[in-house]
Structure formats: C-alpha cells, structure tokens
Design a protein that fits this description.
The complex is a heterodimer of chains A (about 375) and B (about 375).
Chain A lengths: L9 H31 L4 H29 L2 H34 L18 H8 L1 H32 L5 H9 L6 H12 L13 H8 L13 H27 L3 H9 L4 H12 L1 H16 L3 H6 L9 H11 L3 H29 L4
Helix pairs in contact in A: 1-2, 2-3, 3-15, 4-15, 5-9, 5-12, 6-9, 9-12, 10-11, 14-15
Chain B lengths: L1 H37 L4 H6 L8 E11 L10 E3 L2 E3 L1 H6 L1 E2 L5 E5 L6 E10 L8 H7 L3 E5 L5 E5 L3 H32 L5 H10 L6 H14 L5 H24 L4 H9 L4 H12 L1 H17 L2 H6 L7 H11 L4 H21 L1 H9 L6
Antiparallel strand pairs in B: 1-6, 2-3, 4-5, 5-6, 7-8
Helix pairs in contact in B: 4-14, 5-8, 5-11, 5-13, 8-11, 11-14, 11-15, 13-14
The chains are: A mainly alpha (about 375), B alpha+beta (about 375).
Chain lengths: ~375, ~375
Amino acid sequence: MQSPAKNSSAFSTIGRVLLSFLVPVITFWGLWQVFLFLRDSEAPQLVIIVVAILWGVGGIALLFVVLNWFVEQLPGELGRRLQPFVFIGPAVAIMAWYLAIPVFRTLALSFKGPLGQEWIGKGWEIFANYEFAFTDRIMLETFRNNLMWMVFGTALSVGFGLLVAVLADRSKFESIYKAIIFMPMAISFVGAGVIWKFVYTYRGVGVGIQEIGLLNAIVLAFGGESQPWLNLPPWNNFFLIIIMVWLQTGFAMVVISSAIKGIPDELLEAARIDGATEVQAFFGITIPYIKGTLLTVTTTIVIFSLKLFDIVRVMTGGNNGTNVIANEFYLQRFTYGNTGRASAIAIILLIAVVPVIIYNLREFNKDRRAF
Amino acid sequence: MATSSLKGQQRRSSLIINGVLILVCLIWLVPTLGVFITSFRDSQDIFNSGWWAVLPHKEDAETGEIILEDDIDVNGQIAIEGTSATFEEWREGVVLPDGRKLTWYGNKRTRKIIISEEVWVGFAANLTLENYKDVITGKEISFTDAGGNEITRKGNNLGGAFLNSVAVAIPATVIPILIAAFAAFGFSWLKFPGRDLLFTMIVAILVVPLQISLVPILQDYTKLDLNGTFLGIWLAHTGFGLPLATYLLFNYISTLPRELLEAAYIDGASNFTIFVRLILPLSVPSLASFAIFQFLWVWNDYLVSLVFLGEKTRVITYALASIVGEKGQDWHLLTSGAFISMLLPLAVFFALQRYFVRGMLAGSVKG
C-alpha cells in the first residue's frame, strides 16, 4: 500500500497511524462486548447460540482482515517484514499457549503440592508425586490395565481391520461392508458406551426377571448363567476393550485397505503364476508391502489406547479394577483435587509418547513429511 | 474341465469370504440396531423383554383361566383338564397334549390357573415416540407408572444440549481451519526468520496428549473467567486441533504449483489477496476433509467439554453421560438419548464419507 500523496503533512501521517491503531482496538473492543453479552446474558438459548456462531465464525475472519489491514498501513519495509507473522502468528501463539508451554508448566506443577502452590518437598522428596505414581496400588493397576488396552485393543483392532480390508478387497459388496465397519467412527465414545452398556446389562436372578442385555440373553440361550459382565475383574477390562475395537477397527481397515489397493496387480499376478498359494502371497507380498502402513496404524491406535478416557469413565468410572491412567488423572485433579499428582500422571503420559515424537521428527527431517 | 473346477473353487472361496464379512458386519451392526429399536419401545416393555421381542417370534399368549373348585385337594397330585401333576409342577407350567400350557398363578390358595398358547407374534410391538419426547424436553414430565402412582420428574433437556453442541462444534471447526490455513500458507510460501524451527515444533507437538494442557489451561481460564463460555471451549478445541490442521494443510498447500503464485505476484496481488482469492479456493478438498474430521472430533468430545464447560453449558455428550450416571437403568432415556447424539455426526459422516477418508489417510494422529 503506497500512499499516492508524496507531500503528505506530518499531521495526516500521525492521523493515519492513529487510525491504524484505532481500528484493531475498536474491533477487539467490539468483539469483547459481544463476548460479555454471550457470557452474562439471560437471552433465550436459541438467540445466544445464533449470535455465538455468527460471532465466532465472523470474528475470526474479521480479526485476520483487520490485522492484515493494520500491517499494510505500516511503512513499506516494516510492514513487509511483519506480514508473515499475521499469517502464522495466531496459529503459533495458540499452539504455544495450549500445547507447547503447558508441557513446562505441567512439569513444574508435577513437583508441587495438591494445590499447585508450593514445592512438594526438599531434596529427593521433590519426586513425591512420581513416587506416588509408580508405587500406589491404584496407579499400578492403571498401568496394568493400560497395557492390556494397548496390547489387546491394538492387536484386535489392527487384526480385524486387516482381515476385513483383505477380504472385502475380493468382494463385490466391498463398499457396503466397509461402510458398516467404518460407521462407529462417527459415534462418540459416550454413545458407544451406552450401546455396549445395553449389550452387557445384567438384571440378576429372580422370578419373572428377563435378561434384556444381548450378551446375557445369548449366554442363557446356550444354557449358561447370566453374569454382571462389567463387575468381573479382570475380565471386565476385556469387555471394555471390545468397545474400543468396535470403534477403531474401521480406522485400521480404511487405512490398510487403501495401502492394499496400492499393491501393483502384476506383483500378485506373478506370484500366483509362480504357484504361490493365496496364503503365501499374503505373507510374502501383501504384508511386506503394507508394513509401513501397519506400523503407522498400530502407532496411532497405541497412542489412542494410552490416552483412553471416555469409555472407562462412562462405563465403570474406573471401579471394579478397570481404572486407566487418563481416568486416574481426571480423578486426581477433579475429584481428589490433587493438582501435583495429576500433573505427574500427565507427564508420564507425555513420556510414553516421546518415542513417537522423536520418530515423527526424524521422518519429517528426512523428507519434510512425518508419517 | 480345469476351468470349471477353477470356477467352482472361486465360487466357494467367494462364498466363504462373503460369509465371514457378513458375520463380522452383523456383529458390528447388531448392538446399534438393538439401541435403535429399544429407543422406540414403550418404557415398560423394555424391562419385560429384550429388544429382539419386536421381531416375529413364538410367544406364550394368555387365552383364558381356570379357577379350581374348592373341593379339590391342592396337596399331592392335582388333576386338571385330564392331566395330573403336583402343585410345584403346575407352578412351573405344564404343556397339555393339545399344545396348551397351564400355569398356576401365585400360591396354593389362589386356585387360579392361567391358560396360554404358543402363538406367532409378528411386528406387533408397541412402538412409541414418548422416549424421545421425554429425553429431549427440559420441562417437567408427569406420567403414571405401572403401580398407578403419579410420577413427576424433570426432563433431560437433550434438545438444549444438542443446540449447545451445535454452538460449540461449528465455530470450533471453522476457527482452527481458518487459522491453520493462514499459517500453512505462511509456512509454505512466505519467508521469515525461524520458519523451519517453528514448523519443526508443530511436528513435535502433533502427538502431545492433551492431558498435559488441562491443568495449566484450567488455571488460566479461572483467572480469565473463561470457564463455561463458548469462547473458552472454541479456543481449547482450536488449540488441540491446530497442530494436525496446520500440518495437513501445509502438506497440501505447499504442493500447489509455484508458477500459479508467481503469476499472481507479478500481477501485483498482495499476499492477503492471493490467499483469499487463490489459495483458499484451491484448498477446498483439503479444508473439507479436515473440517469433517474436526467437526466429528468436537461433536463427540467428552473430556474437553467436561473440563472447560461442565454443568454450566451442557453439550450433548455431557448430557448423555449424566443420564448414564444418574439413571443408568432407564434404558428408554439412554437409548433415545444416544440416538439423538449420533444423529448429526452419522448424517455428516455418510454424506461426506469420501472427504473424511481422505483426511484420515493424510494423517490422523492427534493429541
């Protein structure tokens, strides 16, 4: 933006600078007023919601326009230097506030007491929250359970995903099968929790009492006895893991399926002509070819099962030996009010994903593209 | 000969493949189907029989009753309708040779026997929309239960929670995408100091678990009075969604042809104009796939809204989870509530599945 008037007076320059500061300030002030209205007003819900959506979506666009306008008002060189930061600034600032800086803040909090105010002790006592995390009976139980989630949940999800992907590839109705297996990806963990709680529901023994849960009905039909499935440690963990498998198999299937489609036909054709059986072709060509994809899918689901929270929270609340790390984090922070211990647990979760972070960075540096 | 046996073999293997797939698909579908059917059943029926009772099946239907004469001795063998059995056996129910089943009702003194016959029951289930009415509205609902008692209780206001979810999910989808698109353009086409370092940090925080942020961000929100506000939750979802969004959009935008942009620069267009007029329209497929991803993620999120919104502004997952906690055996509410919560994501999902899959393939690791 070059001003056409070359002999503009000092007064008008000052005026322009003032204006260029004023416009962003007024914009911020206006948006803030709407925020206060939304927070404190007693208007009907529908009004609030419509205003909120318009304000949120419009506000962000307006902010970018005004910020850019402001930078373009600045004299030539300075404006040009600052402009990239209009583009990346908001993203970097928000990511720093919400993810990068909290790593260090949580690390500091993990050495503090329940209220997060003072250091928890002197010398070795500074590790008291970590000592708790690695020795407490409940914590050890959560480690065991998360290990079960990681091993069985991941193995079953990837296994079923691979099975369906390979089989559906040879069926005429591929897209129907895949849509059905994929559907749970659109369902929330809370919703999935309700669906499966209904499958597992148990009403007990008594005159005239009918089991209305599918699993118990099936067990009864085969002459077994109905069971309170979610109260049977350690087996209840498996019944919860099944829910995750139900949700995540679709993800594994879709990613693996697209990798399988990438295998050149000639490769499989050649193997068959050489007399390889389908099983040999599968292990000799398909699996090696999609190894990278399998690794990616496995890593993703392992990370997912590490942070798993909603299913356990909704189904059992972590009772009866089903607690997991993320739920214990929630309990420590929000039920027992122990910020220090909760932070230590969060740091443990972070440490568990560090290998993946390193792997991502290395892959990214290799070809500027992680995964 | 060889070809025909090969064809037979192919047909057999195709049969096995489709059989296995149909079995897996049934296992995947039936739990949802059960919830769907139950959500339309009368709340009393739900407890008296499993949801599969709405399918055609054979059932004992009462056809009449017999009252025993007072002079018949109820101790020892009792002969009724030409069959004799003990009281205990009658109580369990005895099937007569003609197919009717007689069951003693209550204790010995009632002297009442129920006659029932096995009949086919079709799709004659007692279906209703009452459950949905009960769970959606926030008004007081009163009804008479089986014992004749008038029961009043507050509805679950899932309708209100649904609207809140809409108000959370739409801006929490648009805001991160817009911010990420700007950033992705900046990182791929503008030169500034620290560019590579900053982008490497974005890659590093791709898989940071969001539990890391909850404690400190909640402290900030308490200070800023952002708890329970729409702005607070939008920003939180933006923060947690941005690394992946920026990364995915960067991968796309950085591969746009350089000549296109250079031509625009030569025409004297500013960076902002190029971004709005050229980059955004060209990136629509990529934007769409992330949008669906983020929308489903936000809509289905429970943890973030539990921490930053809570009871103040109930979203649908929160409301549904509270029904599970408070009324865990009220299946008529749980099933209809679950279905309401699934309605919008399922619609979005099936309408835009292709974009969703594309987004997922581009990388879907999220913290």
